[in-house]
Amino acid sequence: xxxxxxxxxxxxxxxxxxxxxxxxxxxxxxxxxxxxxxxxxxxxxxxxxxxxxxxxxxxxxxxxxxxxxxxxxxxxxxxxxxxxxxxxxxxxxxxxxxxxxxxxxxxxxxxxxxxxxxxxxxxxxxxxxxxxxxxxxxxxxxxxxxxxxxxxxxxxxxxxxxxxxxxxxxxxxxxxxxxxxxxxxxxxxxxxxxxxxxxxxxxxxxxxxxxxxxxxxxxxxxxxxxxxxxxxxxxxxxxxxxxxxxxxxxxxxxxxxxxxxxxxxxxxxxxxxxxxxxxxxxxxxxxxxxxxxxxxxx
Length: 298
Ligand SMILES: [Zn+2]
Ligand SMILES: [Zn+2]
Ligand SMILES: [Zn+2]
Ligand SMILES: [Zn+2]
Ligand SMILES: [Zn+2]
Fold this sequence. Notes:
three-stranded antiparallel sheet; 7 helices; 7 strands; 31% helix; binds zinc ion; Fam221a/b; Protein FAM221A
């Protein structure tokens, strides 16, 4: 039992590592020092410069929110593309090129499936029989003018009328589209709907609703924590409660995290982040330990 718990904790730790690092370690696990360095370097950029990727119908509806595992026209997953930008390019559209060696994909391009099957081009060949290089020419015939599919989306519009949109948080907000919570995970694409913030990534749904539960939303409004941590904190903000009890009147309460230098912020963030990991693990352990079943009549 003890050993299983240790293994479960190690698995959870690994899963979290993978969510954050994605493929950035090139298949060779970072050392703990490299991992810390990676988080220090990448997370602030990622939180600041997240790109949202969706597949949009001509009516402006996001028919598909692209997630880390969503396949591209090039047959690689979104997470295999360049999804982190230190500085967001000025030009539009923003390109998200594939990082798989020798892949010619210049930017992530969503293509729907027909059930589990690839869809067909008007040249009658499947999507994956076409080149991922610009122009999307067919590898199996010479009459194709570039991939073009009339396959009808659930919204009633043909595939060819949709476009893959890559946009910033500000650009989405300006259109009244959901942006969800800030998360440290790699290649989140357009995912904004959390069915449970505490569970994070594994329970992410792609509904795009992105509305946290009411009590959480309230705690976010009153929380004085770092904005990133708000996304992770559960409904109870104990620090807030304690300061209210200790300070008495809320009018005299100080905003304590308003004037941090960036370094302080990161140290604070890191500390709280580690605490959260520990808490999550403890909760997981509790969940997993079997509840002793009562025999009837005992
Ligand atoms: Zn590719
Ligand atoms: Zn691609
Ligand atoms: Zn063809
Ligand atoms: Zn074709
Ligand atoms: Zn559609």
